[in-house]
Write a structure and sequence with these properties.
By secondary structure, this protein is an alpha/beta fold. The protein folds into 2 domains: about 1-250, Aldolase class I (TIM Barrel, Alpha-Beta Barrel); about 260-325, Non-ribosomal Peptide Synthetase Peptidyl Carrier Protein, Chain A. The chain is built from 14 helices and 11 strands. It has helices spanning about 25-30, 45-50, 55, 80-95, 110, 125-135, 155-165, 190-200, 210-220, 240-250, 260-275, 280-295, 300-310, 310-325, and strands at about 1-5, 5-10, 15, 35-40, 45, 70-75, 100-105, 140-150, 170-180, 205, 225-230. The strands form 2 sheets. Strands 3, 4, 5, 6, 7, 8, 9, 10 and 11 form a 9-stranded parallel beta sheet that branches. Strand 10, helix 9 (about 210-220) and strand 11 (about 225-230) form a beta-alpha-beta unit. The structure holds flavin mononucleotide. The site of flavin mononucleotide (FMN) has 22 residues, from loops.
Length: about 325
């Protein structure tokens, strides 16, 4: 059991925030697969403070889960301590999530050029001020999500972690890559292990977990308190359950069949249409559907057809026919 300043967490398996992926429709699916702790996509502190409607839609959540009470973290990005504090206050008052996370890892040019995300890794004092401002503003546990540093010559994760903990962070999630790497190369689990070994609060290891075995290996190699899944759950919510069952019971689950994958893809499509409406859901669902069917027979042909579709009924019919074909 993990304890983040009073927030009790049973599972060691966290699901990472992913912009454009871990939205409300997909989070509902992830809950069904046993995700105890989920995060919203990253949310602009500036957008929240300015009352931007689209920013608010990113936060919508519920806590239902078939496994136990689900927890949700709202991830904020920004670099102005006052604006971050104000945004956190709004989030706490209006949404009452279980925790607030601060994004110090996003490598996107648009984000770092404004001083947000992984740009904060170059400024430990500022990262500390942002963390402290958010911690002071709310009664919720505050976590930070970081990378190792800007580039390999500037590894600042040790310093940033220490500063964040000093400022009151309840846990630190570490993606074992630098900003310069984006998603290339391998995540450095040894670096995560080094930081975890001297950190006073739980460290959650992140980077390159694509199977339940990877999850166990990361825990063994890093001695982290928990692990965080990201790209591994794209089109693959089964990984949450597979990781949990493997870590908690030592059992390997049978991988999903082709029909199971299409069934969940259809359910996901329904939830996306319900939440966004058809016009917005269709383009968003194209990538998810491509992930669900990846590796199945004739997937690229089906993907090409999906990419040309504009109507939910066409997508649904294609998926149902594909399911019948795969199950024959
Ligand atoms: C499409 C995509 C969107 C992401 N969006 C966010 C985000 O909003 N906030 C964040 O902290 N990290 C974000 N990340 C980073 C992931 O949370 C994670 O740290 C990274 O993918 C490394 O884990 P992995 O190797 O298991 O994918 C994103 C990653 C991807 C691939």
């Amino acid at each position: 059991m993990l304890n983040l300043d009073g927030l009790k967490i049973n599972s060691q398996v966290f699901v990472a925030p992913m912009a454009g992926v871990t939205d409300y429709p997909y989070r509902q699916i992830l809950r069904e697969f046993g995700a105890e702790v989920l995060f919203t996509e990253m949310v602009s502190s500036q957008g929240l403070v300015q009352g931007n409607r689209r920013t608010r839609k990113l936060i919508h959540f519920n806590r239902q889960t078939g496994v136990e009470e689900g927890k949700i973290g709202v991830q904020l990005f920004g670099a102005d301590p006052d604006i971050m504090a104000e945004a956190a206050t709004i989030v706490e008052a209006e949404y009452q999530p279980d925790l607030i996370d601060i994004n110090m890892g996003c490598p996107a040019r648009k984000i770092v050029n404004s001083g947000y995300g992984s740009a904060l890794l170059q400024k430990p004092a500022k990262a500390a001020r942002v963390t402290e401002a958010v911690v002071q503003a709310v009664n919720l546990p505050v976590t930070v999500k970081i990378r190792l540093g800007w580039d390999e010559e500037n590894i600042t994760a040790d310093e940033i972690t220490e500063a964040a903990v000093e400022a009151g962070a309840s846990a630190v999630a570490i993606h074992g890559r630098t900003r310069k790497q984006f998603y290339s190369g391998e995540a450095d689990w040894q670096a995560i292990a080094r930081i975890a070994s001297s950190c006073e609060v739980p460290v959650i290891g992140n980077g390159d977990i694509f199977s339940a075995e990877d999850a166990r290996e990361m825990l063994a190699e890093t001695s982290c308190a928990g692990i965080m899944l990201a790209r591994g759950i794209q089109g693959n919510p089964w990984l949450v359950k597979e990781s949990r069952v493997f870590l908690e019971e030592g059992k390997k689950l049978t991988p999903p069949g082709a029909g199971d994958k299409i069934s969940i893809a259809l359910k996901h499509l329904d939830k996306a249409i319900e939440f966004y409406g058809e016009k917005k859901a269709i383009p968003l669902m194209r990538k998810h559907l491509a992930w669900y069917i990846k590796g199945l027979s004739h997937a690229s042909k089906v993907r090409n057809r999906i990419n040309k579709m504009e109507q939910q009924q066409d997508m649904r019919n294609l998926l149902l026919n594909y399911k019948n074909y795969l199950e024959d």
